[in-house]
Write a structure and sequence with these properties.
Length: about 500
């Protein structure tokens, strides 16, 4: 090759060379361990900003101190070595959001973990966000049908409400949440199920059940497994909420289940103690109330000017030996708009769902019910409360007057009717029909042992010969004279056939 040609080429490249200076905020790892790194030199880093380690692992700046920054590591901290460099990204922790996430299982950073194709999202939502203000909200007025008779009748949930599910372990808390998700089929509702620190086998079982019921068509599962770092359990509910906000901003209704916030508080306590934040009651840091309040306040029903979307939250809290007055349970009870209290004693007696109607409450109440349900259920709660009182009293003596005996008999039938199998949510019109039959004495002559069979046959009858009854309730949604007439006629017809 000609020497002069090479010189010409080199000259032209040297003349065309442009150097650009690029500034990067860089720090050094002072120490690392237990999912947390102490970093020096990141003087301009923001709180909750993403930082990147030389090894490729990312972290979030949590503690901003005078001479060092405490970073929570979002991955395998064993890859990080002391003395390696750390860059600040200038971005606040965000997750990718997209319609394609429906039907998928993702991690708290928005990456798919179900083995299917990756989702390329163009939009990012911040994981932490200020909740909608008072002027953007509207009062809760539309129901969320859970499909569970005891809840829809006596502890109704509305779109935009936060209803706590609380109880000891193994009392059916997750079962209620999953049944509610299954019942949203055809109700124009997106669902987000956030599993915090749960066993991966349990999550796989839940996903399989949702797929079997056809509920994954409108559901996203966000998973921070038991074997994942505490940092992922800490951000999981906020990531789920950010995804829900993406749908809410489009004017859609979303149901978010946080399963469970006790584990979320444990993960935050772990991270806080390693970052050497001062411990308070039960060794939780002082801002553990704010941890949950800033998450749950993001659930809202927006008014029409802001798109009219809503986020309904079903947080779950696990109690230890029924102690509702412990630190985290009392905190979350005070933030939410009511609670569904599940009792182990009822669960072991075979009353499932094991809802204690006396201790459970919905602070939205009748405004989250259709008129027909409101009318038939008013009597139900009273019947049940009287039965609970008389049941305890009746144990002491058998010599009861006729009225008391009748109330106890009605109570036994009420308890039987409110029992419901798992993954068997019931349409609201069917609930209205059976509760009407119960509260108006049509079941008083049916033996308690045969109540369940009577109810199953009654629903079969309504599906085949009593279609018009169901259609009238679905259409009118209130207990008008026409509805009552159709209901009574249907019940009487069925009783004749049944006998």
């Amino acid at each position: 090759m000609d020497k002069s040609y090479i010189i010409e080429q080199l000259k032209s490249q040297i003349e065309g060379f442009k150097s650009a200076a690029k500034t990067e905020k860089v720090g050094k790892v002072l120490e690392v361990g237990d999912g947390v790194a102490k970093v020096s030199g990141l003087s301009e880093v923001m709180s909750s900003e993403l930082v990147e380690f030389e090894s490729g692992v990312v972290g979030v700046a949590l503690n901003l101190e005078a001479d060092e920054v405490g970073v929570m590591i979002m991955g395998d901290y064993t890859k990080i070595k002391e003395g390696e460099t750390v860059k600040s990204s200038g971005k606040i922790l965000s997750i990718p959001v997209s319609d394609k996430m429906i039907g998928r299982v993702i991690d708290p950073l928005g990456q798919t973990i179900d083995g299917k194709e990756e989702i390329k999202a163009e939009k990012f939502y911040p994981v932490e966000k200020i909740a909608p203000g008072v002027m953007t909200r509207k009062s809760v007025h539309q129901p969320v049908q859970t499909g569970i008779k005891a809840i829809d009748a006596m502890i109704p949930i509305g779109r935009g409400q936060r209803e706590l599910i609380i109880g000891d372990r193994q009392t059916g808390k997750t079962a209620i949440a999953i049944d509610t998700i299954i019942n949203q089929k055809g109700q124009n509702m997106k669902c987000v199920y956030v599993a915090i620190g749960q066993k991966e086998s349990k999550i796989a079982r839940i996903v399989a059940e949702l797929e079997k019921a056809g509920a994954m068509e409108y559901t996203t599962v966000v998973v921070a497994g038991a074997s994942d770092p505490a940092a992922l359990s800490f951000i999981a509910p906020y990531s789920g909420c950010a995804l829900a906000e993406y749908f809410m901003d489009k004017g859609e209704d979303v149901l978010v289940v946080y399963d469970d916030l006790s584990r979320h508080a444990w993960a935050y306590r772990q991270v806080s103690l390693i970052l050497r934040r001062p411990p308070g009651r039960e060794a939780y840091p002082g801002d553990v109330f704010y941890l949950h309040s800033r998450l749950l306040e993001r659930s809202a029903k927006l008014n029409e000017d802001f798109g009219g979307g809503s986020i309904t939250a079903l947080p779950i809290i696990e109690t230890q030996a029924g102690d509702v007055s412990a630190y985290i349970p009392t905190n979350v009870i005070s933030i939410t708009d009511g609670q569904i209290y599940l009792e182990s004693d009822l669960f072991y007696k075979g009353v499932r769902p094991a809802v204690n109607v006396g201790l459970s409450v919905s602070r939205v109440g009748g405004s989250a019910q259709i008129k027909a349900m409101k009318k038939v259920a008013g009597k139900l709660r009273l019947d049940l409360a009287q039965f609970r009182e008389l049941e305890a009293f009746a144990q002491f003596g058998s010599d009861l007057d006729e009225k008391t005996r009748a109330q106890i008999e009605r109570g036994k039938r009420t308890v039987e009717i409110l029992k419901q199998g798992q993954y068997e949510p019931m349409a609201v019109e069917n609930q209205v029909a059976i509760i009407y039959a119960l509260t108006n004495g049509y079941l008083d002559d049916v033996e308690v042992e045969k109540i369940k069979a009577w109810e199953i046959d009654f629903h079969k009858f309504l599906k085949s010969q009593g279609k018009n009854v169901i259609e009238i309730i679905r259409e009118k949604r209130e207990l008008s004279d026409e509805v009552v007439e159709a209901l009574e006629k249907g019940i009487k017809e069925f009783k004749e056939i049944y006998q």
